[in-house]
Amino acid sequence: MNKKSILHVANIYFVLPYFIGDQFMYFNEKGYKIHVICSPSEEILQYSQKMNFKYSEVPILRSFSLYQDIKSIVAVCKYIKKNKIDIVCGHTPKGALIAMLASFLMRVKVRIYIRHGILYETSSGLKKCFLMLIERLTSFLSTSVVAVSQSIFDRSLDDRLTKENKLTVLNNGSCNGINSQKFSKDSINTEILNSIKKKYKLNDESYVVGYSGRLVKDKGISELVNSFEELQMKYDNLYLLLVGMPEERDTLPKKIVNKINTNNHIIATGYVDYEMIKYYYAMMNLFVLPSYREGLPTSVLEASSMEIPVITSRATGCIDSIIESKTGIFVNQNNPKELTQAINFFFMNPELAIEYGKNGREFVSKKFEQESVWNSLEDLYKTNS
């Protein structure tokens, strides 16, 4: 039997290496034909050659524009027809909406919406109602919805976003799993690590509080910066490592941006290639994600796999990413005082931090290994075919 053609649709390139990655090669080796549509990107040509997929660059805006969105839907429809696509996977709310609309119109038999998170959780009023409506429409047009965590699954049902017979969680969560061999202390080249540490003027005496992700308000960056500055007055070897880029949407307050830019103990790296991200985890003593909302925070699982203790919030998605008082500590959202206490706890208890880190690696290795997630995803492809 000939294997099927799979099309992944996402509005930004970032989704491809961070949320799909080696999954491309896995399904290629199993005989599937892999295709991608995403907004124009300088990186996609080289990445497509590395991961062996065909692609088309179609502008998919995060905001809503009737004219541009119709153009995007038409372009996706044409691509589906030309390449005889059998399975369409939509990522991120806007990318998934375009994908599900186009594949529904083209009568693609398998239409899967990967719900990476719930955007309206930090919205209110008419905007929240509109975003909920979009979620329900995307779900209606799909044949299956993959919730990337159990708490996303539960919230989807509570808010009546998706009928239960369409909704699933792959194994223990995630849409791609974690490569625990890649995200391992044993995989680190010491010379490369030391050169990066030298670049940022870090040494063995530095205590690095780390974060990886978009630098936006919803991630709790303001609280993290304020907590860090409070502790910095007590500990002169404390550093904050912010790995990621700011965004125009949900921008940080100017006061926080100024603190990041002027404090010589706060390191903002900008964009880091996914193949190098493990070296930045390797510089961290502690990983912190005080987010207001998540799907399932991959960064937390990657940090845990690298044996780093974690502080994260009690937000949707985050609550599935650690075992409290074993691999990490929960704090309430928008609570700098609680966050300061938690960071101080790990700073003052280095032996316990090591124990949490080891527990974290065991947790990720047992629950979120990549191939088990990919096998479940392939079962979903076959079930819907």
Structure description:
With 385 residues, the chain is of the alpha/beta class. It folds into 2 domains: 5-177 and 369-384, Rossmann fold (3-Layer(aba) Sandwich); 185-367, 3-Layer(aba) Sandwich (Rossmann fold), CATH 3.40.50.2000. 44% of the residues lie in helices and 16% in strands. It is built from 15 helices and 13 strands. It has a 7-stranded parallel beta sheet with strand order 3-2-1-4-5-6-7, with helices on both faces. Strands 10-9-8-11-12-13 form a 6-stranded parallel beta sheet, sandwiched between helices. α12 (298-305) packs across α14. The longest helix has 18 residues, at 66-83. The model has no long low-confidence stretch (mean pLDDT 96).
Helix count equals: 15
If you compute it from the alpha carbons, what radius of gyration comes out, rounded to the nearest whole angstrom? 21 Å
Please summarize the sheet with the most strands.
Answer: 7 strands, parallel
What is the CATH architecture term of the largest domain?
A: 3-Layer(aba) Sandwich
First-to-last CA distance: 13 Å
Structural class: alpha/beta
Main sheet: strand order: 3-2-1-4-5-6-7
Q: Please tell me the overall pLDDT.
A: 96
Helix and strand string, N-terminal first?
EHHEHEHEHEHEHEHEHEHEHEHEEHHH
Summary of the model, kept short:
The chain has 15 helices and 13 strands. The chain has 385 residues and is of the alpha/beta class. It has a seven-stranded parallel beta sheet, sandwiched between helices. It has a six-stranded parallel beta sheet with strand order 10-9-8-11-12-13, sandwiched between helices.
